[in-house]
C-alpha cells in the first residue's frame, strides 16, 4: 500500500470517527454521566447534570470533530472523490431522513407519548440556558446533525446496495439497532424504563419504532439514488478501494 493509500485510509477512519461516532456520543455520554454516574434518572436536574459533562465535551471533542470533518471534506474534494461523495451524500441524506423521523416525533410530542421534545432536551443539555431563543436553535442543530451522522455511518459502512430493496433493508436494520440503543440506553432507558414500560407503554415504543423505520426507508432510498456504482460495497471494500 502506497503513501497515498495510507493517507486515504486514515482519512476514511478519521471521518467515520469524527463525523459519526463522536457527535452522536455527545448525547449518550452526557446523559450517561447524569443518569448513571450522578444517579439522576428524570426531571430538570438530569439535564443540568448532562450540561455539566457537555460543557467540557463540546469545546474539547464535539466542535473539533466537526472542524476535522469539514477539513476532510475540503481536502478530499478533487483528491479522493469517493470519500468526498460518501461524506457529503451520507450527511445530506441523513439530514433529509430526519425530516421523516420528525413527523412521528411531533406526533409523540403532541400526544404526550414522549417525555420531552428532543431539540429542547438537547439544547438545554448543550447550553444550560433557559432561554428558548438560545437552547432551541442549538438543540435543533444537534438533533439534525445526529441524523446526518447516522447517514454518514450508513454510507461508509454499507455503501451503495445491489438494489434499492437491499439498501432499504440494511438501512432499516441499522436504524433498528439505534432504536434498541435508544430504548435501553441513556437518556430514554433510565428515564422511562426499558422500551418505555414506565411511561407510555406501548405508545412510546411503537412511535419511536415507526420513526426509526421511516428514517431507515428514506435513508436507504436516497443513499441508493445518489451514490454511484463505484460506491458499491461495505467499509472494508471502501478502505481497500482505489484512491482515484
Annotate the secondary structure layout:
Layout (H helix, E strand, L loop, with lengths): L2 H35 L6 H33 L4 H31 L6 H10 L4 H26 L6 H21 L3 H5 L10 H24 L8 H6 L4
Radius of gyration based on Cα positions: 18 Å
Q: Name the average pLDDT.
A: 91
Taking pLDDT < 50 over at least 5 consecutive residues as the criterion, the unreliable ranges are none
Which structural class should the secondary elements be placed in? Answer: mainly alpha
Straight-line distance between termini? 14 Å
**What percentage of amino acids are in beta strands?**
under 5%
Helix content: over 70%
Q: Count of DSSP helices?
A: 9
In sequence order, what are the helices and strands, one letter per element? HHHHHHHHH
What is the tally of beta strands?
0
* Bulk shape: globular
Instruction: Please summarize the sheet with the most strands.
Output: none
Q: Work out the count of structural domains.
A: 1
Could you please describe the fold and organization of this structure?
This protein has 244 residues and is mainly alpha-helical. The protein has one domain (3-240). Helix content is 78%, strand content 0%. It has helices spanning 3-37, 44-76, 81-111, 118-127, 132-157, 164-184, 188-192, 203-226, 235-240. The longest helix is centred in the N-terminal third of the chain and has 35 residues, at 3-37. The chain starts with a helix and ends with a helix.
Amino acid at each position: 500500500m502506497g503513501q497515498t493509500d495510507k493517507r486515504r485510509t486514515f482519512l476514511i477512519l478519521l471521518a467515520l470517527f469524527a463525523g459519526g461516532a463522536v457527535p452522536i456520543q455527545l448525547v449518550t455520554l452526557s446523559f450517561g454521566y447524569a443518569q448513571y454516574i450522578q444517579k439522576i434518572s428524570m426531571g430538570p436536574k438530569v439535564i443540568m447534570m448532562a450540561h455539566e459533562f457537555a460543557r467540557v465535551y463540546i469545546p474539547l471533542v464535539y466542535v473539533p470533530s466537526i472542524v476535522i470533518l469539514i477539513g476532510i471534506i475540503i481536502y478530499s474534494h478533487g483528491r479522493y472523490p469517493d470519500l468526498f461523495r460518501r461524506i457529503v451524500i451520507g450527511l445530506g441524506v441523513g439530514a433529509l431522513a430526519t425530516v421523516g423521523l420528525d413527523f412521528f416525533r411531533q406526533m409523540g410530542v403532541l400526544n404526550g407519548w414522549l417525555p420531552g421534545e428532543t431539540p429542547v432536551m438537547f439544547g438545554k443539555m448543550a447550553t444550560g440556558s433557559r432561554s428558548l431563543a438560545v437552547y432551541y436553535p442549538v438543540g435543533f442543530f444537534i438533533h439534525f446533525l445526529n441524523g446526518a451522522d447516522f447517514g454518514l455511518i450508513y454510507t461508509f459502512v454499507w455503501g451503495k446496495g445491489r438494489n434499492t430493496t437491499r439498501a432499504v433493508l440494511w438501512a432499516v436494520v441499522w436504524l433498528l439497532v439505534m432504536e434498541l440503543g435508544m430504548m435501553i440506553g441513556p437518556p430514554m432507558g433510565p428515564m422511562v424504563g426499558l422500551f418505555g414500560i414506565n411511561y407510555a407503554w406501548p405508545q412510546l415504543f411503537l412511535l419511536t419504532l415507526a420513526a426509526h423505520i421511516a428514517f431507515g426507508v428514506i435513508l436507504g432510498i436516497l443513499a441508493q439514488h445518489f451514490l454511484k456504482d463505484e460506491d458499491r460495497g461495505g467499509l472494508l471494500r471502501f478502505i481497500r478501494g482505489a484512491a482515484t
